Amino acid sequence: MSAEARSLQDAWTSLPTPGDVGVGLGRFTGQRIDRILAIVGAIGSTALGAQALLSAVTTLTRPDWLHLTLMLVVFGPLLWMIVACAVGRWVRRVSGTFAVVYALALLLWPAVVDSTRNVPSDQPWIFFLVNIGVVAAVLAFPPRLQFAWALGLPLIYGFVRLTQGEFSRSFWVATGFDVSFTIILGMVIVSLAWMFRQVAAGVDDARAKTVEAYTAAAAASAAEEERVAMGALMHDSVLAALIAAERAASERERTLAVGMAREALTRLANTEASIAHEGSDEPVERTHIVAELRRTLSEQGADAVVEERGTPVELPGRVARAMVLAARQAIGNALAHAAGRGLHVVAESHAPNQLTLTVLDAGPGFDPDAIGEDRLGIRASIIARMAAIAGRSRITSDENGTTVELSWEKS
Question: Among 192, 210, 228, where does a domain finish?
Answer without folding.
Answer: 210
